[in-house]
């Protein structure tokens, strides 16, 4: 399918507003936050309560934002990990996603502000993400959530963290996670190319280019060999005994093939996984849901999958 007209228009606008390549990480972060502000403002869907909290983590604490869709007890609980290449993003840039997810899934959502690279190298984000899961399970009742109905979700780098947290949770024996929603997740940081990486990462108008992926990896990983750690590349892990996964992918995303392969490897190992590939879409399209119809459809699919899996009453 051709590139969706809504996406084509937005990509043109983003290219025109591109930040100079020599900009610092701090300048790039500010630019990303400014790009997200209109999206967040356009979709500030109401929820019963939001609360910013501090979550204990190794070496200190991290911020998280809790979204409560309605005053009730026994609601499902979703840990959401934002995207941004492990370098960009925060609870503010993904506020619109978490609000809609809370409403549509009828679930308490905890948006995790894990520490970012390059200031905090791998595996800091992983440790923060897992600490947030443990904290949320222990404090679920405070927000009207059921610690027996926990899902993890995330987009891009956040999808990586959701997948890795599911593996760590299985290995711990606690099995807190009952569902995972992986939105165009990064699951292979080894640099081994797939057809979609070659075809779409090298395209002149690529939304996520080969150079960008290499730059993100350099910022995040402390050493090149860290790419082969299953906490960085979960596709290398044993994928048996994992909670059911919904993997959302985009047709024109360099990560599409590895996302489909991850779901295939889950199924081959005996775990359940479903893939939904959105035609005409690029990496990052769910964040654009206020302006892109398919983004809203994908987010609502994620919510419906969580609601169905966790049997909201």
Supply the CATH superfamily name: Alpha/Beta hydrolase fold, catalytic domain
CATH architecture: 3-Layer(aba) Sandwich
What count of structural domains?
1
Content of β-strand? 15-25%
Q: Which spans have pLDDT < 50 for at least 5 consecutive residues?
A: none
CATH C-level label: Alpha Beta
CA(first)-CA(last) distance? 39 Å
Named CATH topology: Rossmann fold
Number of helices: 9
Numbering strands along the chain, what is their spatial order in the largest sheet? 1-2-4-3-5-6-7-8
Strands, total number: 8
Major beta-sheet overview:
8 strands, mixed
Q: What overall geometry do the principal axes of the alpha carbons give?
A: globular
InterPro entries: AB_hydrolase_3, AB_hydrolase_fold, GDXG_lipolytic_enzyme, Lipase_GDXG_put_SER_AS
Keywords: Hydrolase
Organism: Thermoproteus uzoniensis (strain 768-20)
Family: Belongs to the 'GDXG' lipolytic enzyme family.
């Amino acid at each position: 399918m051709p590139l969706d007209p809504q996406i084509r228009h937005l990509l043109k606008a983003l290219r025109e507003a591109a930040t100079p390549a020599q900009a610092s990480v701090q300048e790039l972060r500010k630019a990303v936050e400014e790009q997200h502000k209109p999206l967040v403002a356009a979709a500030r869907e109401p929820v019963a309560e939001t609360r910013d909290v501090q979550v204990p983590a190794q070496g200190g604490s991290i911020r998280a934002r809790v979204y409560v869709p309605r005053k009730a007890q026994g609601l499902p609980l979703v840990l959401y990990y934002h995207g941004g290449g492990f370098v960009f993003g925060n609870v503010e840039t993904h506020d619109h996603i978490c609000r809609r997810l809370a409403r549509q899934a009828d679930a308490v959502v905890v948006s995790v502000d894990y520490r970012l690279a390059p200031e905090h190298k791998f595996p800091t984000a992983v440790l923060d993400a897992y600490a947030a899961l443990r904290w949320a399970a222990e404090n679920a009742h405070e927000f009207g959530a059921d610690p027996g109905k926990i899902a993890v979700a995330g987009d891009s780098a956040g999808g990586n963290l959701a997948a890795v947290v599911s593996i760590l949770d299985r290995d711990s024996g606690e099995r807190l996670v009952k569902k995972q929603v992986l939105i165009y997740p990064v699951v292979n940081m080894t640099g081994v190319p797939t057809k979609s990486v070659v075809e779409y990462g090298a395209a002149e108008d690529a939304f996520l280019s080969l150079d960008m992926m290499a730059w993100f990896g350099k910022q995040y990983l402390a050493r090149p060999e860290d790419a082969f750690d299953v906490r960085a590349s979960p596709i290398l892990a044993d994928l048996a005994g994992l909670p059911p996964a919904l993997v959302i992918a985009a047709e024109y995303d360099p990560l599409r093939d590895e996302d489909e392969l991850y779901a295939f490897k889950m199924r081959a190992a005996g775990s359940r996984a479903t893939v939904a590939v959105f035609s005409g879409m690029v990496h990052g399209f769910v964040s654009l849901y206020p302006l892109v119809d398919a983004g809203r459809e994908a987010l609502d699919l994620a919510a419906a999958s969580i609601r169905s899996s966790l049997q909201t009453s």
